[in-house]
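Minutes, project check-in
Item: structure for the 723-residue chain
Input as provided by the requester:
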Amino acid sequence: MAGTAPGDWAAGSLAQCLFAPRAVALVGASGDPARASARPQRFLAAHGYTGRVVPVNPARAEVLGAKAYPRVTDIDGPIDHAFVMTATAQVEQALRDCAAHGVPVVTVYSDGFAETGPQGAALQARLAGLARELGVRLLGPNCIGLVNPVDRVALTVNAALKADTPAPGPIAVVSQSGSMLGTLLSRGVARGLGFSRMVSVGNEADLGVGELTDLLVDDPATRTILLFLETLRDAPRLARAARRAHAAGKAVVAYKLGRSALGAALAVSHTGALAGSDAAVDAFLRDAGIVRVEMLDTLLEIAPLLARGPAPARSGPMRGAVVTTTGGGAAMVVDRMGLQGLAPAVPTPAFCAALAAHGVTVRETPVIDLTMAATPDRYRAVLQGLLDADFCDAVLAVAGSSAQFEPRLAVEPIVAVAGRQADPARRGTKPVAVFLAPQADASLALLAGEGIAAFRTPEACADALGAFSRWTGPAPSAPTPAAPPCEGILPAGPGRRVLDEQRSLALFDALGIPTVARRVLPADADAAAIGRAGDALGWPLAVKLLSPDLPHKTEAGAVTLGVANAAQAADAVRAMRDRVRTHRPDARREGVLLQPMVTGLLEVILGYREDPLVGPIVVVGVGGRLAELHPDVALRLAPVDAAQARAMLDEVRGLAVVRGWRGLPRGDVDALVAAIVAIGRLAVLPGQPVAEAEINPLMVRADGVVAVDGLVVLEPRDPDAGR
């Protein structure tokens, strides 16, 4: 196999047949060079592919100078990979022909499948089922193809391959957008970056992002894996691949579209709104050790920054030191670094004194400005000093016009100190980022060739440093807890259903979360019955109407607080009934719920949700009526252990008060941690019947916590069905 070395992917393996096939069949190849279906044959020839290329076209004996065959079954000799470009209606037969000939991998460029709607989705499901039945691995459909610069395979219709052959390098790309594959390729080439493998997944009927990432973990030509994501279709598999990548010393980076609240439209609880799917995706990526970036430029440019793995553990924010030959350019990045949560690194007096010996005057300010005093030796001395210093965790070098016209002043010193030939012991693991203020393509290519992260915009530079500072690798895998004893508590039945508050609080009791004392009376209870129950609980009371049709009782007018006696309680019940008739005339009224008024040091919202993309998550934040208006929450994949729960509390600024902030009374943090862990155990219920669960508020006291209001939404699932 061209361009590979002993120990690479085995001949005949899925990876080899997919990315580096020895023989390719182009099904539906066109003899018209202007047509898209002629591009793969043209591109393979233009970019130096040395394997066999076999066009398949029943109407032609020859296609672009190569012998053509009517069907794949007519080809003499083995084929590793077939690229199908037929009409939609002919794809199934092409797949059958490939299977009959023993072709192990088929890429389907043809469209008209799930991207077109329900009818196309059914057609795609049938195609995927047929591929499984025939034992053929399927890439696509609606897939633009792949590029393998290492082995000079350009099996794609992407017009970006009309340009020069991309250079091989250590960066792999998996994209859910076919057009973005060409965008990333052209932008990377312009920066002097090299790629190992680039693949578009199309509709992911079979091979998807997770499995392709897993293949790339074992690819000796790949060091960094970039993901362009529009959604997540198999989060567990991607998580496993990312963890394997981290163990192999390879970074996985994701740029994810769609920050809207996918799935939140069906959410009933406040948790559903607070934990929109983008927030859940963010938690998933962090848990899997995948670096998330906010900008497309960052996706390409961050790779060298991650080559040495996560930075050593530290307490507090990452401290960034800056050396520059352009004050304005440095200010743009420093401003953005602050928004990313990075702290300025101020030189120490000892550092300033040491540089004075090199003729460099440095003040104790966050930016070392050499604009008027830059020489190669001075720039080199400052950079090396920062790499050796203990007052900074990262180094940012900013170059002005010299990057374009005098690279020896600021760019070549960076290469000397942080490039491939520099002393690894002096570089250590401290990241070095470079922002070039002018358009300096030659310097960008020089830095890329030396494995140094260089950025064309201050925004992408700061985004990369911020993403690197948050990268800690995958979260430790905690033991799966035992399922909570909820038998007989959750009613059986099909469909999505909302439980009333009494049944919801009963579930939290079963989880081991303390709940408020309460009495449930019939919906037509009179004043005497209410008075007796109130006397037993102790006045004043919270009086609520019980109904599964009123998940948000405050909005429906179904709650009255601070009721002092039986007469007030009876009046409150009558008034609430009238309000509910107006608000929701068809609402079922299952009873009256009485609770003693409860106070605490802080109201917390504690929630659980089955996210449609990543699965079960736990949410904790500042609770009460304004929880959704001013969201201040932390998320984790469920279940969680005590260490993860404590880390969640540290992330929520508003919960600092329960830790005794500025002398305020300290809440029972241990009890709050236990409640977070407890609600996360819903993830291991057989059949995963709970779609949403929420306590708002959970009162945090000095000596415990108590759930005051609860909401549970059921949506039973097949326990054998995977997400």
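Outcome recorded: The first helix runs from residue 14 to 19.
No further action items on this chain.
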